[in-house]
Each structure stands twice: as C-alpha cells, then as structure tokens.
Amino acid sequence: MASQPPTKFPLTSTETALAILLPAHLSSDITSIRLIHDKSASKWPAHINILYPFIPTLFLSHAIPLLQTHLSSLPFSSLHINLNDVGVFKHRKNATVFLRPDEESEGALVRLRRGLTGVIGCEEGEGTVEGVFRPHLGVGQAGMLGGRRGNERGIGREVERLSELVRKIVAGGGLEWDVKGLVVLRREVGGEMSVLEELRFGDEDEGDEESGCVKDDTGWMSCFVFDPAADYWSRLSKGIKHQDVRTMDHVSISSYNIMAEPTAEHFNSRLPLIISALSSPTPPPSNTLQILTLQEVNDESLPLILSSPYIRKIYPYSTHAPSSLLPSARNLVTLASEPFTSTVVPFEERHKSSLVLSFEFGPGSGSGSEKKSLVVANVHLTSGLTDKAFKAKKEQMEKLTVFLFPKGKSENGREVVVAGDFNLTTSVRTIETALSRGLITDATAQAVRKIIDLGVWEDAFLSPGSESVPENETGMVGYDGQETFEGERGATFDRATNPIAAMLEPPIDRSPQRYDRVLFRKGGSIAKDGFEIFGLPNEEGRCGSDHYGVRATLNIAQTGNSMSDIPRKFDTSSVADKITIIDDPTDLTPLIEPYLPSPEDISQRAQAIELLHDTLSNGDGMEGIILAPLGSYLMGTYFADSDVDVLAIGSVNPGVFFEFAGRELRKLDSGDGDEESFKGVHFVNSLVSIVEVCVLGIKFDLQYSQAEELVRAYHDETSSPSLPDLVFDKALISTLSPSSIRPLNTYRDSAYLLLTIPHLQSYRLAHRYLTLYLKNHGLYSAKFGYLGGIHLQLMLNRVVKLISVSTLTTSTNTDQESPPVSPATIVRTFFTYYATFNWAIENVTDPLLDPQSKVPRSARDAIFIPAIHTPTARPNVASSCTKLTAHTLSSQFSLAAQHLAKGDCGSGAFVRVGIDVWGVGSEIAESKVREMIGALESRFPRLMVALGRIAGVEGRAWPARLWVPDVSENEKGKGMEREGGEEGEEGQFKGYYIVGVSAREGMERETKQVMEGKLVTAVREFERGVLEAREFVEGSRNVWVVVDVVRRKQVNGMNLVLDWREWSLEKLQNCVSKQHGGLLEALDLGMEVAGSPGNSSFAPTSSAHPASTSTTKSNKPTKAPKAPKAPKATPLRPAHEIIARIKWDPDLDIADYMIGYEDRFVGVKEMELEKWKSESTDEEFIPMHRVVWIRLKDGDILWDRRRKIDGFFGSGICAG
User: CA–CA separation, 741 vs 728, rounded Å?
Assistant: First the structure.
C-alpha cells in the first residue's frame, strides 16, 4: 500500500540534503584545500546547504515535485552568489573555517529558504542552529590552540593559517557565479553524498556547466602560459576547454620530487642543481612534446621554479602561476611545452590527489588521420610501509585507473601516462625486515609490489623496447653494489649515493628504493625509446633533492619496437669508436696448452651432457626437452677444471621441472642408479633457480626455461631449424613470457657473440690467457666484486670488434675481409684499452648494437657492462663491482700493459675476516654451512664499497678463502705456535679472508689517523652486518665470525695458504686451487703471486697444476682430506676472538666478565670488560697482546694467555 504524503515534512534526516553546488570552474582551489583540511571532503562536494537535515528518503518522492513546482514559479531563472568573506564557527576544541556570501547574496538565500520551508510545512528556523539560517560554504576544520597574543577573535594558530589560505581565494573579489537551481543530495552506502535530483529556478531551459547543478565536479581548467613580452604568467582564455597541440611523434616525460622536507637546505641554494639536472641530457628531437611532473612543490619553490629562464623557455605552460594557491606543504605541479587542460582527482587521504593533464593533438598528415589525445597524470602516493599505507596506495591507484579509463569510453587514439613518486617499497630486504618486525602482514608482504596492475600498465624502466619485465615476477632483481636484492636496481631514493637522502632517518632500513616511475598504457601505440635517471651527485658530490629524477622518451607515432635482426656477419658501418692496436706476434699457444682440456676430457663432457639429457627426458612432459650449453663451454673457452653451465628448455612449468630434476638426480646420487655418475645434487638460491650436480666427475649448473612453442618448433621435422635460428626468431620470442625469456637470454647472449665476434679462434685463445692472468692476480671472482666469465666475455668482445673496425679502415683489401689478428695482439690491446678506460662514465657495450643501452645506468654502477639481451636477472653484469674494483683493474691492466711484474706500493695493513664453524654434519647441516659461506662472501662487495668511500684508501680483497695448516711438532718446539690455530675436532673448520689496505702516497700523518679511524668504523659495521644476517643468526651456536684490522707483520706470521677443503662431508668436491704460500705478496697492490712461472707479465700464472685438473672417469678428482683430529693441545684462541664471542653470543652477557691486562708499571690490572676500549684511535686503547686473562666477576678465570686455558672454545690445553 503506497504511503500517504504528509501535510508537514520533517527535517530530520542527515541522509539527504537540499544544496547549491560550487561550479566546476571555481572548485579547483577550494577542493585542494578541502582535501587536506576538511574531514568530509571525500564525502561531500563543495556546497552551500539550504536545507540540512532534510526530508527522509521515504518522503522524497512526494516532496520533490512540490519543491520543483515552487522553484519553477519563481520570477527569476538564476540567483547571483558572491562568496567574498571568510568566517569561523568556533566549537569546543576546534573551529570550522567557511566562505560567507556577501550581504546581498545572503539575503537572497535566506528568502529562498523561507519559501521552501513554507512549501513543505516547516517553520523557518527548523533545522538550523539557534533558529537562525547562516548560509556558508565549509572549507575545513582546524585546532583552536596556540593563537597569537592579542588575537581578539580568540582562535588558534591553525585556524589563522587556514583562514589565510582561504582568504587568498577571495582576495580578488570573491567567488561569483549565477546559480540556476538546487540539487537534492542522497547518501550512498559508502557515505558519499550524490546528486539525486536537480531542481531548477524559473523555466526548464537547459543551463551550462557553470550553473552549479552539474554532476561532473572534476573541473577541467585551462593552463597558465608565460608571456615573454609581459614577463608574466597568465591563464589561457576561459572559453578554451581543449586546445589542439601540433602533431608530435615523441613525448619526453620527466618526473622529479624536489623535496620539501623542513630540514632541507633552502630551495634557492638547491635550484641551480635541480635546473642543471633537468637540462643535463641531450635535447630531444624537435618534434617532441616535453612534460615535467614535479612533486613536493611549496610556496618557497614554486615562484623560484617559474622564474627560471630554462623553465620558461622549455616549459612555458603550467598548471600553476607563481601566485597560485598551494593548499599543503607538498604539492603537485606539472609543466609542458604545449598547452593543455588539467583537473584534480582527489584521493581519500588528506594531502593526496592526482593532477591530470589532457593534450589534444591535431590530425596527422596522413590520409584518414584522426585526432589523438594524451592524458598524463602526476601522482604522489601515500608514503610508508604499513598495512594501512599499503591499502591507501592500492585504493589510490585503483581510483586513478578508473578515472583514466572510464567505462564505455573508446581508447582509440587516446594514450595514458602516469608519472611521479609512487612511494612503493621495492627492496625485498626492506619488505622482509618490515615483515619480521610485525609492521606488515604476510598478505601485505606478498601484494605490496602488485599495487601497479601490470596487466594495465607498462613500466618504462622495466620495459626494454617491446619486451616487458614485470617486477613482481621472481627473478627480476636489482643489485645495489653491495648485495643482491630484488627491487633495488634503478633506485631513485638511495641513501648510499645521495648525500641528502643519507641525512634522513630511515623508518625501516637504509635499502635503496625505486619510488619514482613513468608508466604508460599497456597494449597502446606508445613504445619506449629511452629511459634515464638524472639528478645524480655532481663532481662536488652534491644533489638537488633527496630523490633522483626519471625521464622516459616515448614514441607515440608507432605501435612499438621489435627486436632487431641479429647480424650474421660483422658490420662496421655504424661503429664510430676506434681503438689503439698494440701489435704482438708472440705465440701464446705453448703457454696455454698445458691448461687446455684433453681429448678424453672433451669426450667425457659430451658423454656427461648426453647422460644428463637422457635422465631429464624420462619424465612426463619432458620427452622433447632441449639441453643447451652456455657460457665458456658454448664459447669454446673452458678449461679442464671448468664447470659446465647448461640451460634446459622444456614445456612444463619451472616448478614441475625443478621438482622432477631434484627428485630424479638425488635418487641417482643416493645409489638407486649409477653410483659413479651423479653426485652431490643441491639447489642454489641464486639470481635464477639453479640445480648443481656432478655428472661423470664434471660439475654442472642447470637452469630452466619454459618455452613450449620453441620446443615444438625445434622438433619440427619439416623445417629442422637450429636452436640459434629459433632464439632470434622475433615472432617466436614474442609468444614467450618474460619469466621464460629471462633464462633463455643467457643462451641468446652467448649465441649472439658466437655469430658476431670476428677472429673467433684468436678470441678464444686470448680469452683463456686472460682468464688465467686474472685468476693468478686475484681479479677473477664476481662474488668478491671483481670479474667473472661473463664480464670478460663482453669486455673482450668489445675490444676484438673495435680491433676489427680499425684494421678494416686501414686495410687495402677491396673485399673488406678483416686481416688476421694474433691472440697476443688482442691481449695487449685489451690491457692498454682498459688501463685508461674511464669506468665512471664509459660503458662496456657491444659496438654493433645501439649505443644507447636498453639498460639505464644508475648512480651505484661503478662499472657498467650491460647485458646484450633483456629481460635478464642482472641487467648490468658488473653490478657487484665497486669503485675500488675499477681502480684496481685500471692499475693492474696498466702494469700488465707496461710489462711490469711488480709494483712499488704495498699493503700496510689488512682487514682480516675469520670464520669458525664447528659441529658440521652433527649439530649443523652442511647445506647451512654452504649458505653461511655464501652469505659471507657475497657481503664482501659491501665492505669494498665502504672502504671506497674513505678518502685516501686503496684496497684489494683476495677472492678466495685461506687457512693455516696444522703446526708441526718441530715448529712448536721452536716457539712458532701460530695465533688462530685451525681445526679442533672432526667437523670443525676455520678459515680466513683478507683485504689489503693502504694509504695513498703523499698523505699527511693527521689525515692518515682520521682515515684509520674511519677504516676501523667501516670494519666494525661490516662485522655487525654479517653477524646480524639471517644465515648467521640461525647458526649462531655453531659459527663464529671475527673481523679486525691487523698489521702486515701479524698476517705474515700466519703463513696463510689457499683453502681447498670442502667444508662439508658431501661427495661433491671443491675445485679450489691447491697452491701453498706466497699469497700475502699477491695482495700488495700491483704485485703478482709469488712463485709464478716466468717473470713476464704475459706468462699465464694459473695456480692450478694441469695434472690436478683432470676429471676423466678413470682419473677422478682427488677427494678433499677430512679435517684431522685435534691433538691434545692446540694453539690458544687469541683474546680478541674471546671478547668477540662474549660480545655477540646471545647466551653470554658482557656485564658478567672482568678482563686482566698487563700494566707496564704495576703488573696485572683488572677492569670490567664492558669498559674495555678496543679501538686503536681511543685514548684508553690497550693493545690485545697485553691481555692476560678473562674471568667471571664472581667466578674462575675462563681464559688465560699464560697458562693456555680456554673455557670458551676449548683451545690450548683444554683441547681434547
């Protein structure tokens, strides 16, 4: 039964309202302030309430016709409103700031309301405060505390500040418009007030959008333009909604967070650095639309930016003028080289919104060309890594995406770009740290990097050409120059390289983050032409902001770039670089021959690959699997003791493959198959998933790529294509996912080199020689921050191709065949070329490829050797190299080029890293030992980075583990007992790593002392980082690590040798060289290993003897000796190791111990161990050799140097 209309309608509902809306063209500034200061901004549009509370929803259908009849009968069709004053409603604890209409407008609104209340049968004062109607437009709320002295109104400082902001809006005469009618608002389920009905004054004629009755309150505004003649910024004509831009082929979009921290240096002193960063790159092509999105702009920086001659010339169109209202301390501003319209998309959170621009392009020159549009959104999402912040960012991106891609609107001819500071935590270690501290839940940790929907957006940094690399896929990693962590590559906020960022206290950790991005619509007509990071430290080490900027050059005139064809012949037409060739006819073959694989070894490797292939082909779905060798084996540059890298290409997903491979290979290893065939199977947690297995005595590293289409094409009997043909088939590769292409690119890189390197035989011999040279000189170890196989491949590839270019240009051959080049010529040219190579700014790229690399160089890249194909696990293969690496390579190559066997500068001190593991196989798993060793060695680049930041320090790590062999009885009798003696019981191992450090020549004494203090600090930080690593925390009861700075004499007395032992009981053997003695001299900067065969710097000096590297089935690798059982007395552990154990062992409390030391005048004195000063720079420092004992405060002596007692480790007479 229908409800009867009441004779009097109650004004009791807060779910409805009758109001006047502020028109779109006037709402921009008000909306900006309300988003920050008005708690109802996300629920209510800017409005003036006429009746609120209003009529309950139940009776609206009866009341609305009555109201519309009354309004239609009014003698006017519009009502003029002028909001020209600011008022304050004071409450108990805060106040509301509002805009008040002038006297004439207020009278008209009061009369309007009086008539409406009469129509619905209400009293005039009903629904008002104190019976008085006060028309107003609420702007925001502020606290009442902290008002100025003498403030007659008695309002707080925050209220004053907000009032001043609002007063700026009405300073030019107020907000004036003609209202055409009222709107009925109704509250939705989410709390938002939406327009239910529009009620117009007078007749029913349609009005324009300035009536105040429009539903679309996004408010597209014309931009400001700089007039050089008037030297003034003014807004374009109000009547222009869109202005056509001349047709453009490219768009250059730069995004820069210019920092508005209160602690930041004054902006006028940073502005030259910011302008220099913006103007640093090569100018784009003339037919390019240039856009600049800025974040954290404030009242100080805005007028300074817009007064810059560079900005006025390049970006004469802006969303703001110097006098524009900025509602918060951190605002968005966008500038462009062409006119546009803009609007604001508000977000739920205060201070947060998106500034959206629209460019309308005129028709192109081609027939049938249509108009195109480009929409660019400037964003600055909510900061922080918490569940609440994650939810806010996710909702902001979802709301922006909905706005940019409205339902029912065609996307033809419309491209969308989003640029700005996304505040998305990208570093995996930061996410893991936040999770371990309980700052985020597991669900947030899993989803935090999926806020950007990669089904909608393409990331310009991750997108090389037409290939996309989703960041949330496993294997997309970054490398920060210290350790490998996902999400840190391309960081734009980096405390390690940016001095301004370094001063800010981190909320979680100091890991670099890639906050700033440029996204574009996926599947559209945009293709990326280039990407760069700007704003890096200048020569003085200064930056303009705590963020680096990002710039993407986008091609909007075509559908995308495709992979270029791989050249099958060496083409020098596009190579501009040249090289100085050092001719040398020396035959290197006799020097290399002893280390080359024998025919038996070659045959055995082929058999091992076939056996591995047959084993992996036995599973369901594995029948057509392809096994492709990689690296040195494919290139023909391997040695008899080299591992073999192989890539399995199949149809099943990686999880199925690795589960099958691990199960089958382990079953064979356990004895269910040929016990002599498969050994030591285990997984490696590397940049990509790897299975290590020893087959027929040869170690294999097995990777996998799921590429079903490629497998099917490979086994097509009708065409029988080769694998190289297939991996460079553009159509075929385009069907593969990035997760499949990433491991496949390791094969494509090697195949490309084989197809394009000239003088291949000379290249192979030179590569082998250089490998031996680098190994002998301690420069061949990627995990220690030096060179590895892939580094040498790409470096030598560049040299050989440049040599070929130079010989072709000087050759008289008419057929352009490159003259032969000897291996010795390649080697000597290699040394000369890289001895003077400017690693800081020059890139080791392939001369045949586009000189503008697909991989952007970051501030952390001390050496830049980009991979040939992307996506890849490590876009810069030399990302582990440090500044000290670059210095070492240049100096070593310079010495080699000058035929020097020794240098003049030696190491004065050493950083000694000792690791002790016990209970191996019984108390701690052997896999855990491998993890700890790997974790420790992977952290050495971090130490080298820290040392490289100390002015005046030269350093070099020996890339191998060392140890002290057991002391013979006759040595003990001569008093040659060594500090830090080795193995105690079976299952216990101890080793050392050493880094030679020295001061550069000409350094003053005082400067050296400061440098030594910084050195000790860096070493302590490194030690702390190692001990706090997950692997060492989990194994803390069975491992000890001590890092200290020792003098040369002390290391000399240890007689360290290379540690070839396998620190486990597994069957898989370690292939570390068995060279004894002479290693200390190799760490002298510029010296060769003692005992090298021959004095010439061109004699290969491998530490491996040819006879010891044979791996034939009949001559199996020699097993590493087991740790010998300890004698009844072993060398006593030194005092510094005892103190370190007390300090770091969670079961021990340093407050419980006393330390006794020898005083020169009174004998042995004691002090609390907590107060012991171990830093040599401390005034109270006491050398370790004067420590006599360590005891409990209320108990016995537990360590005594004189009596050889050790109750902590059981060394000395306590052994056994």
Answer: 11
State the sign of the Cα–Cα–Cα–Cα dihedral 242, 246, 252, 254. negative
Three-state DSSP state, 101: strand
Helix boundaries (H) for 437-514: 442-447, 499-502
Q: What is the per-residue pLDDT across 770-786, written as a single tens digit (0 to 9) for each? A: 988 887 777 887 777 77
| pLDDT at residue 49 in the model | 95
Cross-strand pairs, 994? 912
Is the pLDDT score of 591 beyond 50?
yes
Query: Closest Cα partner for 345 from 127, 13, 597, 32?
Result: 32
Phi-psi bin for 816: left (phi > 0), alpha (psi -120 to 50), beta? left
pLDDT at 239: 43
Mean of pLDDT over the chain: 77
When pLDDT is averaged across residues 503-521 and rounded to a whole number, the result is 90
Least confident of 410-414, 497-501, 702-706, 1023-1027: 410-414
Distance CA 351, CA 382 (A): 9
Nearest to 1089, CA basis, from 795, 938, 947, 892: 892
- Angle at 682 (CA atoms; ends 679, 687), nearest 5 degrees: 135
For residues 712-729, average pLDDT: 82
Residue 481 burial class via C-beta count within 10 angstroms: exposed 0-12, middle 13-18, buried 19 and up? buried
* Angle of CA points 735, 741, 744, to nearest 5°: 125
Query: Could you write out the DSSP letters of every residue in 430-441?
Result: HHHHHHHTTSS-
How far apart CA 646 and CA 780 sit, in angstroms, is 21
What pLDDT does residue 396 have?
92
CA distance 741 to 746: 9
C-alpha span between 1114 and 207 (Å, rounded): 97
pLDDT at 470: 35
- The backbone region for 889, taken as left when phi is positive above 0, alpha when psi lies in -120 to 50, beta otherwise, is alpha
Q: Could you give the dihedral angle defined by the CA atoms of residues 448, 449, 450 and 451, in that order, rounded to the nearest 10 degrees?
A: 70
Indicate whether this model's pTM tops 0.70: no
Q: Which two tokens stand for residue 1184?
A: 């370790």
| Cβ-based burial of 550 (10 A; exposed 0-12, middle 13-18, buried ≥19) | buried
Q: Residue 1212: helix, strand or coil by DSSP? A: strand
Alpha helix locations (H) across 405-502?
Answer: 428-436, 442-447, 499-502
136-176 tens-digit pLDDT: 999 999 887 665 544 545 677 888 888 888 888 887 667 88
**Which of 868, 856, 612 shows the shortest CA–CA distance to 741?**
868
Which tokens hold the place of 1140? 């370190």
Helix (H, G, I), strand (E, B) or coil at 487: coil
Q: pLDDT at residue 300 above 80?
A: yes
User: Ramachandran region of residue 150, left (φ > 0), alpha (ψ -120 to 50) or beta?
Assistant: left
How far CA 887 is from CA of 764, 956, 1048, in Å, comes to: 27, 10, 22
Q: What is the mean pLDDT of residues 492-505?
A: 88
Q: Are 942 and 952 in contact (CB under 8 A)?
A: no
